[in-house]
Amino acid sequence: MIYVSSIVDFNCSKACELMIKNLRGLEEEYSIEDNLIFYKLEGDIRDNRIKEQYNVFYKKLTDAFSEKNEKRISLLNPSELSNNYNKICANTEQYIKNRCFISLYNQDEIYEMLKKATSNQINDFRGILLAVYRNASKGQFSEDDLEAFKRLLSLLEKNNNSKTQWDKIQKCQIQYLKENIESFIRSISGKFDYI
């Protein structure tokens, strides 16, 4: 569109803006690999002015796509955990980015969320992690995920008996979560191959 508009002397900026707006407004979840094709033409464009215009638009389009996908799941709102657990179970792979999942989130914020969560919500959070990491093995997830789990485990162990209002059932769920995290750490680091 950008290349052709330069030939016919047409300003396509409005059309480019609409494409970005439409992408942000999509209600369905998409992955670039499976549903949208982002074919990079940069090498085929010889005019530097057109190439620059194309690169600016391409970056805006892919950024809009990334923004949309970054917002499609939250681990920080306890009331959304059940729904997000179902989403992840339906298509786990689409929520893993660059061999990362847990490290995409701030562990201190996750800990704060867990302090406010009910026992069912803590269980849903555990379910999300199990859906992603149940069969984890060395090299499958990044070192960032390993460090994120260590941080979260440290927060849970340090603050398990203080600063929280967890009842006995919540504490039981937290204990299960800690055991799960320990297993994920062993699996990701290659200490053993199963969970």
Q: How helix-rich are the residues, as a percent range?
A: 55-70%
- Rg on CA atoms, Å: 22 Å
Tell me the β content.
under 5%
Q: Strand-and-helix sequence, N→C?
A: HHHHHHHH
Total number of beta strands:
0
User: With helices defined by DSSP (H or I, 4 residues minimum), what is the helix count?
Assistant: 8
Largest sheet: none
* End-to-end distance: 50 Å
Low-confidence stretches: none
**What is the global morphology?**
elongated
Mean pLDDT: 82
Classify the secondary structure makeup into a structural class: mainly alpha
What is the subunit organization of this protein? single chain
Structural notes for this entry:
With 195 residues, this protein is mainly alpha-helical. Helices cover 59% and strands 0% of the residues. The chain contains eight helices and no strands. Helix 4 (81-90) packs parallel to helix 6 (119-133). It is elongated, with a radius of gyration of 22 Å. The chain starts with a helix and ends in a 6-residue tail after the last helix. The model has no long low-confidence stretch (mean pLDDT 82).
